[in-house]
């Protein structure tokens, strides 16, 4: 069986809210193409001066400046780390995030409201200080098994940890990790222009076609078989028999990250395939969770 890292080796809470690490913004770039919906930024922070270290699949906390409506300092918000432990420049000096600016209409006044921390980050200027806590999270770690099958299901910024996994698997070279298994990313986004990291993902897919499968669910451009929006769970349903076969191998790990709303539909699709073989999905899923083969981070 493939084991995740022993829990004692996992860095956690090196920096706490009372004494955060103050990093610097090195870059802040738009990930949504023309005609896409909203703003999603890729941010890279310099962490070279302190002790902050992290693993793929962990998150960091960001403390936005200022006070809340009660006059108390803003609380931290968590963000999944989008870079590998070595950082985007492979020099162990940076950490990156993928942040969507929260924007919604106030249910009573109808006014547009922008999220505090996501707006702060999306507007952060190069060179600005940023208060960082963590890292946290032991749920989304990648197994060390180089031959594992890694199934990744993401909506929107849920791509962040998977970018880190894929970069570790295919872009970096390591002495003790040379991925030879199968990675399958199923990615739900509203429009083609919203496919985060599109060029790089497609380049990896082309180069490593025997080891990396890439499936999109483009909700506002594609239709599901009933004529409705194509959500990630509909793609899962299309491939459910194959996914179910893969999930029964002990070396397969499944990861879900992004919108909470996708979980029910994914379960439904996989239950149907499991039921064809007389297996009750929720019981099987519990076993996978126990074996650390079913990993969920939704928000
Ligand atoms: P806030 O100012 O805190 O506003 C949020 C509040 O607005 C909500 O609590 C709710 O009360 C209200 N609200 C929100 N939407 C609506 C609506 N439609 N109608 C009415 N009220 C509404 N985000 C990312 O962008 N990228 C990530 O990688 C990421 N990773 C995460 C990882 C984890 C483990 C968790 C828990 C969350 C993650 N998030 C991520 C979400 C992130 O932590 C913040 O919640 C998000 O950025 C919003 O924070 P904010 O300060 O901008 O919004
Ligand atoms: P839509 O917005 O068309 O309803 P982003 O974070 O960039 O907005 O992407 C999130 C993606 O997840 C969008 O394609 C969005 O579709 C889709 N989505 C929204 N609600 C659900 C849900 N309950 N289950 C699965 N996907 C969802």
Describe this protein's structure:
- The chain is of the alpha/beta class and 299 residues long.
- It has 2 domains: 7-136, Elongation Factor Tu (Ef-tu), domain 3, CATH 2.40.30.10; 149-298, Nucleotide-binding domain of ferredoxin-NADP reductase (FNR) module (Rossmann fold).
- It contains 7 helices and 13 strands.
- The strands form 3 sheets. It has a 6-stranded antiparallel sheet with strand order 4-3-8-1-2-5.
- Strand 9, helix 2 and strand 10 form a beta-alpha-beta unit.
- Helix 4 (232-238) packs parallel to helix 6 and helix 5 packs across helix 6 (262-276).
- It is globular, with a radius of gyration of 19 Å.
- The two termini are 29 Å apart.
- Bound molecules: flavin-adenine dinucleotide (FAD) and adenosine-2'-5'-diphosphate (A2P).
- Adenosine-2'-5'-diphosphate is lined by residues 100, 155-157, 188-190, 194, 219-220, 229, 231-233, 259, 261-262, 265.
Short summary:
The chain has 299 residues and is of the alpha/beta class. Helix content is 23%, strand content 27%.
CATH superfamily of the largest domain: Nucleotide-binding domain of ferredoxin-NADP reductase (FNR) module
What's the main sheet like? 6 strands, antiparallel
How are helices and strands ordered from N to C?
Answer: EEEEEEEHEEHEHEHHEHHE
CATH architecture of the largest domain: 3-Layer(aba) Sandwich
Label the structural class.
Answer: alpha/beta
Helix content: 10-25%
- Stated plainly, the CATH topology of the largest domain is called Rossmann fold
How many structural domains are formed by the residues?
A: 2
Assign an overall shape. Answer: globular
Give the end-to-end Cα distance, rounded to a whole number of Å: 29 Å
- In the sheet with the most strands, the strands line up as 4-3-8-1-2-5
